[in-house]
Amino acid sequence: MVVKQIYSIVNYNEAVQVMDAGADHIGLVPMQSGGVPAHRVPYDVVDKIYGEAKARGVKTVAIMLNKDVEEMFFIVKRIKPDIVHIAGMDYTADQAFADRLHKECPGVKLMQAILVDGPGAVDRAKEYAKYCDFLLTDTGLAKDTGIGASGKTHDWDIDVQIVNAVNVPVIIAGGLGPDNVEECIRTIKPYGVDSLSKTSFKFNDGVIEKNIPAVKEFCEKADKTSKELGL
Questions:
Q1: Which conformational region is residue 175 in: left (phi greater than 0), alpha (psi within -120 to 50 degrees), or beta?
Q2: Rounded to an integer, what distance in angstroms lies between the CA atom of residue 18 and that of residue 126?
Q3: CATH fold of 3-225
């Protein structure tokens, strides 16, 4: 089955509802120096969410929106996610980061975001695939949120090329929601699909809240399509 990854969780009750709705991976922004302040989750809340996720067999993703490697390692060691997602363009993971992560944080997987802005994304994906455990393709580059969170899709033909060119799992992000997740899966046949903007309510003060009915519909449609295609 295609993995359903839901970003960005901000509190415990929301996390439980998202997992109940069918999410396989849940992502959040742990307290750090980067990203939108309203989206950052205090460590004690992260601990509670991660504890519930572990009990359910749901994978946890810590989204890094800063470029301070030492801060990233402090956070990963403190909260112990299943996956750390490097989401910025000011800093992207390299072989040295991957080696250090696997040595100092055994069991934590590395996911690198790829900005799909043209054919060059395929070459970047091939390079990242040499040392990353997951790749995430996404749309747009924002000052505060790194690669992604645009609510827009990109050229899925490039995603198809990436999936066919690498030997690591690829998760597709960028403007995915209940309206187009089936088409995405049929077109790309990825390891996973990710949703943030189209399964969230976003308010003018920067606060974000998950739209649980939309999350449930997204997950149900992804599962239905995966089953039809035998993925």
A1: left
A2: 32
A3: TIM Barrel (3.20.20)
Residues of the chain with pLDDT under 50: none
CB atoms within 10 A of CB 223: 16
Cα(187)–Cα(206) distance, rounded to whole angstroms?
33
- Tell me the sheet residues that pair with 66: none
User: Each residue of 11-53: pLDDT tens digit?
Assistant: 999 999 999 999 999 999 999 988 788 889 999 999 999 999 9
pTM of the model: 0.94
- List the domain boundaries for the chain: 3-225
How many Å apart are CA 225 and CA 67, to the nearest integer? 37
Closest CA to 215 of 10, 50, 3, 17: 17
| Inter-axis angle of helices 212-229 and 12-20, nearest 10 | 30
Helix (H, G, I), strand (E, B) or coil at 173: coil
d(CA 8, CA 159): 22
Q: For residue 148, what pLDDT is reported? A: 61
Burial status of residue 107 (CB atoms within 10 A of its CB: 0-12, 13-18, 19 or more): exposed
Distances from the Cα of 16 to the Cαs of 55, 143, 186, 222, in angstroms? Answer: 11, 30, 29, 19
